[in-house]
Every structure is written in C-alpha cells, then in structure tokens.
Specification:
heterotrimer; A alpha/beta (537); B mainly alpha (377); C mainly alpha (316); B: ABC transporter involved in vitamin B12 uptake, BtuC; C: 316 residues; mainly alpha; 11 helices; 2 strands
C-alpha cells in the first residue's frame, strides 16, 4: 500500500504540479472505485495512468473533469484547494477532457461542436471561432474542415476534433481516456506526435491506458492503479534508460506482487505474446464459407464489400482490425441479424444466406454479441429466461405455446453450475449481475445445445482477468472438440494467443489472411496499415 | 408457479420466472403493489375533492352521488356494461404497451370500426339469424380497427417513424372517415339527423337473464382472461416483453421485430374494434355523426396502473366506468361541468408519476412503465 | 375551375387559412424548439387549452393585448408541470403529456362552466392593422374585406411572423440555439461542454408552453371571440405532427401551419363559390397527404436522437 510518501513522486527536480489530487476516495454501490489516490500532474509532462479495466482510472478522471464528485479527498490547483462540481467548472479551470466515447454531437458541424458552451455571449462568434480553430489545429499539427458534419468524419479525425475541443478554452491539463482504442497503428503514431507537440507547449497531458507498451513509450511518468488503489509509480528518472522489457517486468511486479511471475493470461499487459497455438491438422472441407459477401453501409457504418472467408471444423479464425471497420456487420450477417445484399454464406454444406436467425441457431451457428448488455441479454428478465431466450416457444421449455417453468428452472440450475455464474438465483434479473457474469450467461446460452460454429465478437472486452481467462479457455476447449470459432477482436494479443489463422478487416474488406505464427503480429499490423492507406489515397 | 397464480400483478412485470420467493416476501410485494396502485387514485380523489370545494361543491356529497348515480336503481348495470368497451380497449393497449409501442390512435380505430358495423348492421339485419349477424359484425369491427393500425405499424417497423404521431394522424383520419361514411353511404334516409339506420332496440346483443346487461360484458371478461394468459404464459407474451424491454436483444434472439410490431399493433386494433362492436351492438344500435366517447386517453392510465396486467385492469376499469356513469348525476347535482372525469383521470396519471418517483427513491416495488423502455434514435 | 377561384374565394381562402393557421403556427413553433431540445410535449393540447381559457378571461376583463400575454403565461405555467416532472425528475414524457392534456381539458371545462355557465360571454372582433399600400392589393391585400387577408390582420399575426423569424435566427446564430440543438441530439456532449442540459430543456419547454398558450389565446380571442369546452379540437396534436415534419426548420413550420390552416377553412371558402364539399373530407386530406409522404419518404423522417429521453449525467 502506497501512502503519501516519496513514492508519490515528489522528486525535487520536477516542476511544481499544476493539478494535484490528494487522498481521493470514491465509492459506488458495491465498488470502491478510488481508494485514497494521490496524483500530481505537472506542466510539460505526459503522465500515464495505467491499469486494467475497472482499476478506477476513468472514475478518477471523471472526478477531475467534474462529472463525478469524490467522497473524500482534495483537489489542488497551483497549490490551492478547489472544488470541481461540474464539467463547466473543470473547463473554466483549464482541465480539458477527451473521453473514450465521443462527446461530439453527430448532427452538428465541427465548428458548431467547438463553439458549444465556449462563451457566454448571446450570438455565436463564427469568424472568431474559425480563427481559433486554425490556431489550435496548427498547434496540434492537424488539418480539420470546420464545416464538416462530425458524423461524416473518420474516428481518428473525430478524435482530433475532440482534442481541439478540449484545448479550445486554453486548457492547462489535457486528459486522454484510452485514446488509442479506436485508432489504427498509424493513427496512434499521429496521436503520439500531437501529444509531443502539446507537451512542448507546456501542457500537462494525462494518458489513461490499459496497454503497458503505450505507457512506457509515451509516458514521462507512470502511475499504476489496481482495484482503485495506486500500486506503483515510476518517475521520469526511473523510466529513462531502461528497456521496454525491464519496465514491463517492473510494472507487472507492481500490479501482481514481486513474487508472481507474469502468467500467460496477462496478455493484455504484455508487449509480445508468442503464438500459443501449435499447428494442428484440421479437416480440409470448410464448415463455414463466406463468399463475396456484401452488406450495405448505413448509419455511419462501413458495410461489407466482397468479403470471402472459410472456417474449417475446429478451427479458430481471428478477425483483426480497428473497431468500426465492418466487424459487427460481418458478425451480424453470419448470425442472420443483417441481410446480405450480395454474396453467399454456406454452413455445413447448405446456403444459409436467406435463413432466419432462428433457423441458423438450430443448425448450430451461434453468435456471442459484443454488446452483452445492450443486445445479448434482456436486463429486466431473470437469468433463467435469459438462458433460453434463443429457444422461445421450443420444447422442452414451451409446450403447446405455454411456458414450462420447471424445465426453465432445471436448465438454469444446470448452466449456473456449469459456467460458475455468480447470481443469487435463477430468478435474479440479469441486469443486476456484474459484466463478467452477464458474459457467462451469454456464453452459457450460446454454447449449449450442440453448437457447431460460434462467432465471438470481442468476447473478453471489459472483463476482468479471471473471466477473460475462462472465456479463452472455453473457446479453446470447444475448438479441441471440433467446434469452430470466428473470434473478432480489436486486441491483437488475444488473437495471437488464440487463433489458428488471423484475417484482417479494413474498411469493410478482408485485407488479408495469415497463418498464426512467429511474426504474425507484425504482419497483421502491416495489413491494417495497408488497408488504411488505401482509403486515405 | 402457484404463487404466480395468486399474484397476478407480478406476472406481468417480471414475466414468468421460477417462483422461488418465500410466501411472506410475496405477500409484502403484493401489498406494496396494491398500495402503489391505489395511492395515485386516492390522491387524485382528494385533489379532485379540493377542486370541487374550490368551486363551491361538497366533495363528499359529490362522490356519494357518483356512487349512487353509478350503482343505485339498476345503474350498476350501466356501469357493468360500460366496463365492456373500456376493458377491451385496456386489453388491446396491453399488447402494444408491453412491446414498448404507443398506439394512441384508439379513438379513430374505435369510431371507424363502430361506424362501419353500424352501417353494415341494417344490411344484415333480418337476412340472417341475429347470432350470425353479431358474429359477423364483431369480426368486421375487429378487422376494420386492426387494418387501421397497419400504416403506423409498418412505418414504425420498417422506417422507424414515431408511431405516436402516425397513430394520432391515422386516428384523425379514421374519425373523419367514419363521419364521411355516416353522412354519406350509411346515412339513414328516413332521418334528418346524420346517423346510421338503427337496429331495433329489442334486437341488440342478448342480455344476461334477469338483467339488462348485454353479453358483450362476458366477451370482454373472457378476452381479458385470455390476454392475461397470453401475456404471462405464452411465448407470444414473452416475445412482446422482450421487444418492449430491449428491441436490439429481440432482433438478436431471432424475433422478427418488424413482424412482431405489426402483429402487436393489429392485435391491439382488433381489441379496440371489438370494444366498438360491444358498445354499438350492446347499447346503441346505431352511430350518429360526430359521436365520440373519447375513451382512448381515459383508458391509457388504467393500463399503467395495472402494470400491463389484464386482470389487474378490471378494478380500475370498474372505477372508471362508475365514474363515467355516475359522474353525470353527480356533476348535475353539484352544478359543475360533467368533464370533471377528465380532470380526475389526468390527476390520477400525474399522481402516478409522483408515486413512481417516491417509489424509485425508496426502491419500492416496480415501475408502472416497466415495458416502455425507449428505443434509441 | 377558373370561375370557382374568384377573387372573393381566394381572399376568403387566405383569410381563413391565416385564421386557422396562426394557432397552429404558434404551437408548432414552440413544439419544434422543445423537440430539438429533446422534449416531446404530448400535453401541447393542454397548454393550448389553458392558454385559450386564461387568454379569453384576461381579454374579457382587460384588453386583447393582455389577453395574449395571459394566454402565454398560462401555457408556460402548465408546461412547468412537464419541466418539474419530466425534465427535472425524469418521468416519462408521454405519460405526463397525456395527463396534462386530460387534466387541462377537465380543468378548463370545469372552471369555465363554474364562472360563465350562464352568461357565455363573447368578445368583439379584434382590430386589424392594414399595411399601408399593400392592403389594397387584391386577394392578398384584404383591406376592403370583412375578414382581411395577408396584409390586413390583427397585430398578433405580425407578431407571430416576427417570432418565427426570430426563432429561426436564434436557433441558427446564437448559443441558445446551438445549445438547444445539442440538447436533443447528444445531451451528454452539451453537459461535457459545461452547459446545463436540464436548464436548456427547461427554457425550451417554457418557450413551447408560452407559444402554445398564445396559440390557444388566438383561438379564443381572435378566431372565435369566445371560449367553449375543447375549443382546441385536437389542434395541439396537429401541431406536434407539424413540428415533427418540419424537421427543426422554422420555415417548414410556417408553410405547414398555413397548408393545414387553409385545409381547415377551405370548405367555408368553397361555399362562397357555391361548391359544397364535406368538411370531414377536407380536414382529412392534409393528414392523408402527410401519411402518404411518410410512406413514400419514410426513411427521411428525422427526430432528435434523445427525444423524450430523460437526461441523467453519467448514464449512457
């Protein structure tokens, strides 16, 4: 446990803190999100806040940006205590925040988005705002069209607008929450350059990330959080002159205790993961064939353009790519939730392109949605019913149109035990469970009743390490039994650890498919960049 | 399962889950639900009483008059008969509200169905046994009102057009179309008043022996039970509940959302058509142009108070029927406008909202609006 | 056809269209602003009714000008229920809207009955302003006819037009307008920018209430010269439809209001030409047209993403 001792990083050489957090504590029902956290943000410095999902990083930054109030602790600006009771107050005090999820109004222009809340004048100052935009864009080294509707911009450009917005009113501190999660490798490089420029302008930058290599490569100072507490700090002099590998070992040591050797399941926090899968002999005849599949683009989505894939029995095929490049469209087209405009999907030797979700389900095609709360389950319904949602009206759960509670209950008990779902009972509403347990409910439903091929869309996104390991083990165990898997993930490490082959999706096309093996990560990265470059022209 | 049968009010909100709750908790929950359903009504009666007081009327006398006007001297039979259309409309609304769909075109569907069968009845009357005529008229009314929901349903299902607005618009069209029909092709040539030709009073729906109460009431009761069963026990009811709770999950689990929206809307329309048939064939025998009992918005609150449970709507329907029948005498005696009922129902809704809030604060029971989860975009 | 559309008929059509269109214009304009801010006022009919009643009573006891002010204040007062229950406390907007409409229908009928059941007073015709020169133009001038036309109207009509222009300008060119547009499409963005979502929605709703109340007052003071139960006859609901179809554009509210206004008055105008056409049919036509348009262009209908959704900070 770290106190307010020297480990807080009070090295004499550093500039005085622009913003300082002292003993910040925040509890949500059932969770202690922040537990006496101390943090000092200095001008001209990139401060990385590193930790797993749920470590309390975002809560801490929500406190700093005025969205959430701490239960305990002080915030000091230039040495004086302040209260940040609203986002407005945060902005006034020079704290600019770039959220993980976009906060731009999609239907408004870039300029409108920037002018929002920017002054107390009655009239909009359009001319002045254009000048300010040019100024900030120059400082950042980017080029933005002021009149473009923001929903028409690519994700990387939207993020640039977000950063401009955060700097609009002359921020002293810029907070970036998981800024690379939506970016291509190339976009990450551009972001790093922009951050470097801002540093040069004397801004303090906070970079929140769960990726270790980002922290060590971009950060001047690193603070490691775990379960709401600071478990370690690295000052600039500790970072300088050490290799990535050394730093990794140090940080992993901070997170899991010195004695724990980095376990294989910690891929999220490791730089290089060697492909875990040995080459296997699989039947040649594919189980699933996707042939020149087209899906119309709608509502800002990419659609699919001529996607062809084949998955053999027992094979785990990974789909890598930056979010929003057609992954969801592919998953939904295969599952039957979205109509294909052209092309064919063949499964177990028959064309399924025109079959309903329900018919495909009965053939053994399953889909683990990436949105487990918004789509995978019905929060208001009990666990027991959620477990049979895809078999409504079918025996043995329904007879002559009427529900048979005894069967539903029997099934629920069985699945709760088999998947170790932590729930007070089968009658508990799913919405009250934790994310990991909700994912287990989804898996228990999808992987039951004789699956042949499962489409997993970001199966471990947002899960804790233990559940993540359990999910990956399930995928592998089923594959060993001959159940194929199509694993869609934005986490390359995960794909490298799991898959036989990895396909790269970019702008709605398959940019290439590679055999998993030595150097796979690098080749996937190249394909991702190549796909991106093609569109940029 | 057995506790579900004794606690119908819970069945609608948390669709049939295995009953694990110990009896005392179940009783506590029941009591809570009863309290939360009655409190808004009581508060509205009190507030309404204060309004009456302000207008110089005696509220206690007023409510006593409502009771005697709706119950005494055989008036209870009118009250019971008024329950038939109200209960059928309430059932119809359950199918859509549970699925998170707002069918607010009730009056248009009701009047169009009523107008069409009132125009058709004289053609059929005397050419066939009365029983067959009633059967045909009920079916026609159900079909007409059901068809009238198709456009809003399809617009919502396929284009995501807000059904509140489209169902209101088709309601206006339906009301006007009914008037056009009544003043035109269905006009009783023997009458100077714009109305359809009347079926003789003696040949309306048969009555329950010993009373004036027509059998439409029995039809309504049977259909209310059927609605309760459909919503709490069948796969159809569960599909509607899923659609209402999470439309994306509905698509994900393989429910054909557009088709289900259409089916829910049309079922709702069919019940509203049957309500019109029960009212026209049970009470009036004809329809006059510009006649509009405007039951639609009055029934909406009842469905919420009963939390989409068809059986639980019955006491509320009875109260509303009593109020509308007995209100005439009471308002006359008190010397106030007979639109007092509207104010009272509006107040019930407002107090329902307030009770909901207090309930949420103290996490008492469950929401009235459980099925109505708004979709995105 | 040409002999049907005589000068008299056209003038009557325009005059009638304005008479019936102005209340729709006020209410729909207010509702359009509120909808852009994310508030759906199903209770618009209730605001109008209350505005009609209070406007009438105020005008009866004082003068027309104060009558309109009173109507606007009454509409805003009723919309305050919406503000408190829905915007502040997060209750369902549709349920509360229905409640407001029902309660206002009941309350106005009740109070009117208790105050004026015997007397049933009426107001005199509202004075018109003839725009110099323009009011002498045939058809659109109307200076020499009994019902006026485009350039011979009571001041409130010109005020209404000015409000349309002012609203459109405010929505496009000012911070208020920008805030309102953001509040309906992505309230969390507005909040993050340091502007109060609840405050923005509150003002938009109060504006809506005031405008609808003014529209109601126009119905009772100018159009009818009296109050009667349910005088709004569903115009509040028509205004909601207009506001949605206008897709946030003031000009479309103006056009829509007068198209509906003319259709509401066309049968009277045609009676001058000796053509007897069913009012039911004419009244139905605009709705049929709108439904047909929606069926054909359904995909293009637009509503703010966060319409009728309560805003809770931090909830996604």
């Amino acid at each position: 446990m770290t106190g307010t001792t020297d480990t807080a990083g009070h090295d004499a050489a550093a500039a005085p803190a622009a913003v300082e957090l002292r003993g910040i504590t925040k509890a949500f029902p059932g969770v202690l999100a922040n537990d006496h956290i101390d943090l000092a943000l200095r001008p001209g410095e990139v401060h990385c806040l590193l930790g797993e999902n749920g470590a309390g990083k975002s809560t801490l930054m929500s406190i700093l940006s005025g969205m959430v109030q701490p239960d305990e602790g002080d915030i000091l600006m230039d040495g004086a205590p302040v209260r940040i009771d609203s986002p407005k107050r945060a902005i006034e005090m020079g704290i600019g925040m770039v959220y993980q999820h976009t906060t731009l109004v999609p239907t408004l222009s870039v300029l409108d988005n920037l002018m929002m809340g920017s002054s107390r004048a009655f009239r909009l100052d359009e001319a002045g705002s254009r000048e300010r935009l040019a100024e900030v864009a120059a400082m950042l080294g980017v080029d933005v069209d002021p009149d473009a509707e923001t929903q028409s911009l690519a994700l990387g450009q939207q993020q640039q607008v977000e950063i401009i917005k955060a700097l609009w009113r002359g921020s002293k501190v810029l907070i970036l929450d998981e800024p690379t999660s939506m970016l291509t490798p190339q976009g990450v490089v551009e972001l790093a350059k922009a951050v470097e420029r801002l540093k040069g302008h004397g801004l303090g930058v906070v970079l929140i990330t769960h990726k270790l290599h980002e922290a060590t490569s971009m950060g001047d100072r690193v603070t490691v959080l775990k379960q709401g507490r600071v478990v370690g700090r690295l000052a600039p002099h500790e970072l300088a002159g050490r290799s990535h590998q050394e730093l990794q070992d140090v940080i992993v040591g901070m997170m899991f205790g010195e004695q724990v050797a980095p376990a294989p399941e910690l891929v999220e926090l490791q730089e290089h993961v060697e492909p875990a899968r040995a080459r296997r002999d699989l039947p040649e005849e594919p189980l699933l064939t996707v042939d020149a599949l087209e899906v119309g683009a709608k509502g800002g989505e990419m659609g699919l353009r001529g996607v062809s894939l084949a998955v053999r029995p027992g094979e785990i095929l990974g789909i890598a790519g930056v979010d929003g490049n057609g992954q969801r469209e592919l998953a939904e087209a295969i599952a039957g939730q979205r109509p294909a405009t052209a092309g064919d999907i063949r499964f177990r030797g028959v064309s399924i392109a025109r079959l309903s979700v329900w018919q495909r389900e009965r053939l053994g095609l399953r889909y683990v949605s990436d949105d487990r709360m918004g789509e995978g389950t019905v929060a208001a319904l009990p666990v027991g019913l959620n477990l049979v949602l895809k078999r409504i009206g079918q025996a043995p759960f329904w007879r002559r149109g009427s529900i048979r509670h005894a069967e539903v209950e029997r099934n629920a008990r069985e699945k709760i035990a088999e998947f170790a779902i932590r729930t007070p009972g089968s009658g508990t509403r799913v919405g009250t469970l934790s994310g990991g347990n909700i994912q287990k409910v989804v898996l228990a439903r999808e992987l039951s009743n004789d699956p042949k091929l499962v489409v997993y869309n970001k199966p471990t996104y947002g899960l804790d390490i233990v559940t993540t390991r359990m999910v990956r083990e399930r995928i592998e165990a089923l594959a060993a039994e001959g159940v194929s898997a199509l694993v869609i993930s934005t986490d390359l490490d995960e794909l490298v650890a799991l898959c036989d082959r990895i396909a790269v999706i970019s702008r709605g096309r398959i940019a290439g498919v590679i055999e998993n093996g030595a150097g796979a990560e690098q080749r996937v990265g190249e394909l991702m960049v190549g796909g991106h470059a093609e569109v940029v022209r | 399962m057995s506790s579900d049968a004794t606690a119908p009010a819970t069945a609608a909100q948390a669709p049939p889950g295995p009953a694990e709750t110990a009896p005392p908790a179940a009783i506590g929950r029941m009591a809570e639900i009863v309290v939360r359903s009655l409190v808004p009504v009581l508060l509205a009666l009190v507030a309404g009483g204060l309004v009456l007081l302000a207008l110089g009327a005696n509220p206690i006398q007023f409510y006593a008059d409502v009771w005697s006007g709706g119950m005494d001297f055989g008036a209870w039979q009118d009250t019971v008969m008024r329950m038939a259309p109200l209960a059928l409309i309430a059932c119809g609304l359950i199918y859509v509200f549970k699925a998170g769909i707002w069918n607010l075109g009730i009056d248009g569907q009701f009047l169009l169905a009523g107008g069409v069968i009132a125009g058709l009845a004289p053609e059929l009357y005397g050419n066939m046994p009365d029983a067959l005529m009633f059967l045909i008229l009920f079916i026609v009314a159900g079909v007409v009102a059901s068809v009238w929901t198709i456009v809003p349903a399809l617009l919502r299902a396929h284009y995501g057009v807000n059904e509140i607005i489209t169902s209101l618009m088709t309601s206006f069209i339906g009301i006007n179309l009914a008037n056009i029909l009544i003043k035109g092709p269905f006009q009783d040539t023997a009458s100077n008043v714009p109305q359809t030709e009347a079926i003789p009073f003696t040949n309306l729906l048969p009555t329950i022996p010993g009373t004036r109460i027509h059998v439409g009431v029995i039809v309504a009761a049977v259909l209310a039970i059927a609605t309760w069963y459909a919503m709490s026990r069948t796969s159809f009811g569960l599909r509607l509940a899923i659609l209402g709770a999470n439309a994306r999950a509905a698509a994900h689990v393989g429910i054909s959302v557009p088709r289900l929206i259409l089916v829910a809307f049309m079922t709702s329309g069919a019940f509203i058509g049957l309500a019109a048939a029960a009212e026209i064939m049970g009470i009036w025998g004809y329809v006059r142009a510009d006649w509009n009992p405007a039951f639609g918005l009055l029934v909406v609150p009842l469905v919420f108070l009963a939390r989409f449970n068809a059986l639980a709507t019955i006491p509320f329907v009875a109260a509303l029927a009593l109020m509308t029948i007995g209100g005439d005498l009471a308002t006359q005696n008190a010397g106030v406008s007979n639109e007092f009922t509207l104010l009272l129902v509006g107040l019930v809704l407002l107090f329902m909202g307030v009770t909901e809030l207090l309930g949420r604060r103290r996490s008492l029971g469950q929401s009235y609006l459980q099925g109505i989860k708004r979709r995105k975009g | 056809m040409s002999e049907i559309f005589t000068t008299d008929v056209l003038t009557a059509l325009l005059a009638g269209g304005i008479l019936a269109g102005v209340p729709l214009l006020f209410a729909a304009l207010g509702e359009m602003v509120a909808e852009r801010a994310g508030v759906l006022n199903i209770g618009l009919e209730g605001y109008m009714l209350m505005g009609a009643y209070v406007g009438f009573v105020t005008a009866y006891h004082t003068n027309t000008f104060l009558g309109f002010l009173g109507g606007a204040a009454a509409g805003a007062a009723v919309s305050l229920i919406m503000v408190v229950l829905c915007i502040r406390l997060g209750l369902d907007q549709i349920v509360v809207g229905i409640a407001i409409t029902l309660a206002a229908e009941g309350a106005t009928a009740l109070i009117f009955d208790s105050q004026f059941a015997e007397s049933r007073p009426t107001l005199g015709a509202t004075e018109r302003i003839d725009i110099p020169g323009l009011s002498q133009i045939p058809v659109v001038g109307g200076g020499d006819t009994s019902d006026g036309s485009v350039f011979s109207q009571p001041p409130i009509v010109y005020i209404g037009l000015a409000i349309v222009v002012g609203t459109a300008w405010t929505m496009r060119r000012t911070h208020w307008g920008l805030n309102i547009r953001a509040a309906g499409d992505k309230p969390s963005a507005l909040d993050a920018a340091g502007v109060s979502v609840l405050g923005t929605r509150t003002w938009a709703t109060l504006f809506c209430g005031a405008m609808a109340g003014m529209g109601g007052a126009y119905l009772s003071i100018t159009a009818a010269g009296l109050f009667e139960d349910f005088i709004t006859q569903g115009r509040g609901f028509i205004a909601i439809v207009l506001a949605m179809l206008a897709r946030g554009k003031g000009a479309w509210v103006l056009i829509g209001a007068f198209v509906f206004g003319i259709s509401l008055s066309i049968s009277d105008a045609l009676q001058i030409a000796g053509v007897d056409i069913s009012t039911d049919l004419v009244f139905m036509l605009p709705f049929v047209t709108v439904i047909a348009v929606l069926v054909v262009f359904g995909r293009r209908s637009y509503l703010p993403a966060a319409l009728a959704l309560p805003y809770v900070r931090g909830a996604r």
